[in-house]
Amino acid sequence: MFTGTYTAIVTPFKNGRLDETAFERLIDFQVKGGVDGIAPAGTTGESATLTYEEHIAVIQSAINFARGRIKVMAGTGGNSTAEAIYLTRAAEEAGADASLQVSPYYNKPTQEGLYQHFKAIARATKLPIVLYSVPSRTAVEIGVQTVKRLAQDCKNIVAIKESGGSCDRVSQLRAALGPKFCILSGDDSLTLPFMSVGAQGVVSVASNVIPREVSQMVKLFLAGNAAGARRLHEKYYPLFKDLFIETNPGPVKAALAMMGKISEDYRLPLVPMAKNNRDTFRATMKRCGVLK
Q1: pLDDT digit string (tens) for 210-222?
Q2: Distances (CA, A) of 109 to 134, 143, 186
Q3: CB 116: neighbour CB atoms within 10 A?
Q4: CATH code: domain of residue 216
Q5: How far apart, in whole angstroms, are the C-alpha atoms of residue 160 and residue 119?
Q6: Residue 1: what pLDDT?
Q7: What's the rounded Cα separation, in Å, for the pair 209 and 29?
């Protein structure tokens, strides 16, 4: 089961290349923070601007630096089924614990197309697969019945990262899929609401910055301490929201740079935050106690 907190970890660059020293420090920070795993080479890891070679290198480095202390849920999705299979097989060979599979973007497949896409990937690997439904970025939602069909027909499709913004949909997924299928929130601000109706954790952007706090919030709720979890949610809710004041991963990379953990280095078409948003975000980080 992939319950708990998985950090959608950034890809730190320096002079346009993967900064392996910073990446190792970030992963150590996650381990010390008590997260259950990391998800490299996803949206937050700027996968869209990585070459195939870089994509695989990021995953391999994450596995090497994690050293079995936490799980590695490798982002290996794509809008081409052949590409997704290629990256997934590479991640399996590298030693990943699971594959995070975003729904194909831009080409807008039908639900049958989504089913055939994910089924082909599942049959090409022995890795557990976590589906990733994020219609705001991909223009298509993985329908509840499609998820159910995939879970029934592909035994290694075991979870979904749900980024549709709807508690109703989480309730529908839980009712359709039963207790063994894992549902993870894909939005930090909705982690607690989603868990209240059946989700079992989060693939988090915020835990790049506050791994211990996000992990503790999830653990408290799973242990039955909803009030304690809610207190952490309320304290860090402004941070959860302002991490998306501009397109992710702009704000989270800015936050890590302010904390002295990485160089604030992006790849076009991503650019540094606008000054007014940066000022607002810095004030939020100070108000939440992340910066002094």
Answers
A1: 999 999 999 999 9
A2: 14, 12, 21
A3: 13
A4: 3.20.20.70
A5: 14
A6: 82
A7: 9
| pLDDT tens-digit map of 243-286 | 999 999 999 999 999 999 999 999 999 999 999 999 999 999 99
State the first-to-last Cα distance of the chain, in angstroms, to the nearest integer: 38
Residue that the structure tokens 């090409």 belong to = 124
The length of the chain is: 292
Please write down the HEC assignment for all residues of 195-223.
Answer: HHCCCCEEEECHHHCCHHHHHHHHHHHHC
- Token duo for residue 117: 């896409």
| Catalytic residue (choose from 161, 219, 253, 266) | 161
Nearest to 198 by CA among 190, 210, 206: 190
pTM comes to 0.97
Cα 285 to Cα 292: distance, rounded to the nearest angstrom: 8
Active site residue 86: no
Residue 260 lies in a domain: no
Element (H, E) at 161: strand 157-162
Domain count, the chain: 1
Q: Which two tokens stand for residue 220?
A: 């408290």
Question: Can 132 be counted among the known catalytic residues?
Answer: yes
* Structural domain harbouring 96: 4-223
Burial (CB count <10 Å: 0-12, 13-18, 19+), residue 139:
middle
Q: Which of 115, 132, 236, 266 is catalytic?
A: 132
Helix axis angle for 52-66 and 20-33, nearest 10°, is: 40
DSSP character at residue 49 = G
Q: Is 191 exposed, middle or buried (0-12, 13-18, 19+ CB in 10 A)?
A: buried
**What is the arithmetic mean of pLDDT over 229-238?**
98
